[in-house]
Amino acid sequence: MLAAGLLVSGPAAAGPAAAEPAAGDGRGGPTAAADVPYDWRNVRIDGGGFVPGIVFSRTEPGLAYARTDIGGAYRWQEDDKTWTPLLDSVGWDDWGHTGVVSIASDPVEPDNVYAAVGTYTNDWDPNNGAVYRSGDRGATWRKADLPFKLGGNMPGRGMGERLAVDPHDNDVLYLGAPSGHGLWRSTDAGATWAEVTDFPNPGNYVEDPGDTSGYASDNQGVVWVTFDESTGTPGNPTGTVYVGVADTENAVYRSTDAGATWERLPGQPTGYLAHKGVLDAENGYLYLAYSDKGGPYDGGAGQVWRYATATGEWRDISPAPAADTYFGYSGLSVDRQRPGTVMVTGYSSWWPDTQIFRSTDSGANWTRAWDYTSYPNRDNRFTMDVSSVPWLSWGANPQPPEQTPKLGWMTETLEIDPFDSDRMMYGTGATIYGTENLTAWDAGATFTVTPMVRGLEETAVLDLISPPSGAPLLSALGDVGGFRHTDLTQVPELMYTQPLFTNTTSLDYAETNPGTVVRTGSADSGPHVAFSTDNGAHWFAGQDPGGVTGGGTVAAAADGSRFVWSPEGAGVHTTAGFGNSWTPAAGIPAGATVEADRVDPQKFYGFAAGTFYVSTDGGATFTAQPSAGLPPSGNVRFQAVPGREGDVWLAGGSGDTYGLWHSTDSGATFDRVPGLDEADTIGFGKAAPGAAYQALYTSAKIDGVRGIFRSTDAGATWERINDDAHQWGWTGAAITGDPRVYGRVYVSTNGRGVVYGDVSSK
C-alpha cells in the first residue's frame, strides 16, 4: 500500500506499558454521537490492498479475522460471507493505529480478539504502537499503549503472527517487537505488557542498512510466536513456546519452561529468515517457511523445513529444488482436520504468477497449483472466477505463461479453515482469494478460486469528484488507480485504463460540461495525464511536457475547453484542447496546487507557500494576489464553488495558521472562518431544502473535536455528522458532497477506501 510518510524508534523502557485509555475514547467507554445522525457505508470496490494476515479461530467454526497493512482489521461474517471492519473508531490523532502488524484470536474464549497496531517504526508515524483487546469480537476495544513503535506497513509485515495467545492460559500473550525491542509478554490478558528480559535475540535483519529514512533500515525484529499445545494443561501456561527472529543465522528459539528460559533451537538451518512457524501438534512437527529476504516484495530464494519436536530431527522438505527456486516461501498452514496436510506459498514469485504448494504426507511429497506442460503453456489445478470483483483482471492481456487474473502476488498468508478442509483463504497485494472445494486438489480435479473479500475495503484515496450528471462518483486511488462508480453499491468492472496509472493523484471535470474529465497520476512508463469526453467511461492519453515525473494536480476549465496542469518534475502548464501540446504558465511557481473557477472558463487558481494566484487568460499567466494570512506551510487544499464565479474556499495549514478561509473575489482577499481549530479539506454538495448556498463539508477540528462536519448556512455554523465509532483514522486528502443528493458526502480515507454518508433514515 501507499506509504503515508516514513523514523527510527529510540530505545524503549523495559518496564510495563501503560494500561487503560480514558473512558469515552470510543474503545470501551461512552462514545460521542454526531450532531446530525448519519448512516455510513463504503463505496464498493472490494479489496484493493495488501492483506498480510488471516487468522481463523481454533475454537469456533466460521470465526476468522484479517489484518491489513494500513486499513485496519476485519472479522469474517459466516452468515453472508462478508468482512466487518473493526477499527473504524481509530481517530485522527492515532491514525497510525489503522496499520495492523498482527492479530490474534483467543483459542480459549472466542469472544476475545487482540490486535497489535502501529503503521511505521520511523518518524512517519509520530505515535508509539499499542495492543488493542476486545471481549466482543472487535465491536469495542480497550487499548494498552506500548513504549515503542510497531510497523504494520513496514518491510517484513507479512511475517508472523507476532502476537499469540496461550492456548491453555489465555491471560498470557506474547508479542514480537521490531526495532530491537525484543519479545514482550502480558500476563493479564493484554492489559499491561513487559519485556521478556531473558529472551536472547531481538533480531538483526534489515532490508537496506543504507536507507537514511529509517524505513528499510529498521531491524525487523521478533516476527512470530507459536505454542505447542501438547505441552500444557488448562489453566496453566503452555510449557513449550517457539519464537521466530529476523536473523538468518539464529532464526528460531524455544522455551520449555513457559518462557522462563530460552535457547536457540539446535540444528536449525541457517542462511534464511523464518517467515512462518506453524506447529502440527498431533504429528509433532514444527513447519518453517524460509526466505532470503523479509518481504513482502523481495525474496529470491527459500526453503521449507520440518522439525520433529520429539526427536529434534530437522528435514529439508522444500517443494522445489534450490536450483529452481527464485522466490521465498511464506503462507504456511496445516489442515487441522487432516494432520499431515500442509500448504505453503512462493510469496515472492511475481512472474509469471505466485505459486502454492500442497502436501498430504507431512511434506514428503508436494504438488503445485500450476505447472508447465511445455513452456510457456501451463496446466492449472485451479480455475479463477473473479466475476464478483471483475477489476481483478486489471484489463490485462498478458502473454503466456502469465495469465489474467493472476493467482496472486505477495501471498504472505494462506490459511486452511481448521474446521473445514475444503475452505482455504489467502491474501494477496490486492484482495483475499479463497476456495471452498480445496480437497478437489487431492482428487486430481480442479478447485475454484474466487475473491472472498466483500466488505474489506483497503484503498488509499487521493482525490474525489462528484459531477452534476453522469456517474455520481469518480475516485483517484493509490495502487489501483481509481474507479468510475455508476452505482455505489456495485463493484466497477475495471479501474481506469488507457493509460493505467499506479496512483491517480488528481481528478477534475468541466463544471458546465461534466462529460469532460481529466486525471493525472504516476506511471511506470508513458504519459501522466489522461482525458475523457464521456464522463470517465473511456479514456485517452495526453502528451507530457518535458521533465514530468509524477501526476501533481490538474484543473479543467468550466466548459472543458482547456486545462491547467501542475505536474511533479515540471512547472505549471496550460493547454487548449486535450494536451497535445503544453505551454509553460508564467507567474506561478512549480509545484503549486491548481484549480479552476467553476463559472469562468478562462479563470484558474493556484496556491503555493502562503500565496494565492489567479489567471484570467486560461492559465497562460498567473498573478499573485494581495490576500494575506494564508497558511505558509502544511498541506493546503482549496476548491471553487460551482455556479459562483470567484467563490473559493481554502483549507489546511499548520500551527496557528491552520483552518478554513473563504474568498468571494477570486482570492484577492480571504476571510478566516471563525470557530475551526483546524481544517484539512473542503467540498460542496446539494444545498439544504430552502437554502440558497451549497452545503459545505470538511474534515476538521471544531471546539477541540476532530470529525466530519457540515454547514448548511455558508459556514456560519457547523454540525458534526460522524461519531466516535466512525472516524477512519486520517481523512485529510479529499471530501466532496453530492450535487444531486442533499446530505450525501464522500470521504477519503488512507486505507479504508471511500466512505460515504447519508442523513440517517432512523
Please tag this protein with its features:
single chain; 762 residues; mainly beta; Methylamine Dehydrogenase, Chain H; 3 domains; 5-stranded mixed beta sheet; 5-stranded antiparallel beta sheet; 59 strands; globular; disordered N terminus
What this model shows, in words?
With 762 residues, this protein is mostly beta strands. The protein has 3 domains: 38-451, Methylamine Dehydrogenase, Chain H, CATH 2.130.10.10; 469-624, Methylamine Dehydrogenase, Chain H (7 Propeller), CATH 2.130.10.10; 627-762, 7 Propeller (Methylamine Dehydrogenase, Chain H), CATH 2.130.10. 0% of the residues lie in helices and 35% in strands. The chain has a 5-stranded mixed β-sheet, with no helix packed on it. Strands 52, 53, 54, 55 and 56 form a 5-stranded antiparallel β-sheet that branches. A 4-stranded antiparallel β-sheet has the order 1-59-58-57, with no helix packed on it. It is globular. Mean pLDDT is 95; it is low at 1-30.
Question: What is the topology?
Answer:
Blueprint: E1 38-42, E2 53-56, E3 64-67, E4 73-77, E5 82-85, E6 100-105, E7 113-117, E8 130-134, E9 142-145, E10 163-165, E11 173-176, E12 183-186, E13 194-195, E14 222-228, E15 240-245, E16 252-255, E17 263-264, E18 273-280, E19 285-291, E20 302-308, E21 314-316, E22 330-334, E23 342-346, E24 355-359, E25 367-368, E26 370-372, E27 378-380, E28 382-384, E29 414-416, E30 424-427, E31 432-435, E32 447-451, E33 461-465, E34 473-477, E35 484-485, E36 503-510, E37 513-522, E38 529-532, E39 540-541, E40 550-556, E41 562-568, E42 573-576, E43 583-584, E44 593-596, E45 604-608, E46 611-615, E47 623-624, E48 636-640, E49 648-654, E50 657-663, E51 671-672, E52 676-679, E53 683-685, E54 695-702, E55 705-711, E56 719-720, E57 735-737, E58 745-747, E59 755-759
Parallel strand pairs: 28-32
Antiparallel strand pairs: 1-59, 2-3, 3-4, 4-5, 6-7, 7-8, 8-9, 10-11, 11-12, 12-13, 14-15, 15-16, 16-17, 18-19, 19-20, 20-21, 22-23, 23-24, 24-25, 26-27, 29-30, 30-31, 31-32, 33-34, 34-35, 36-37, 37-38, 38-39, 40-41, 41-42, 42-43, 44-45, 45-46, 46-47, 48-49, 49-50, 50-51, 52-54, 53-54, 54-55, ...
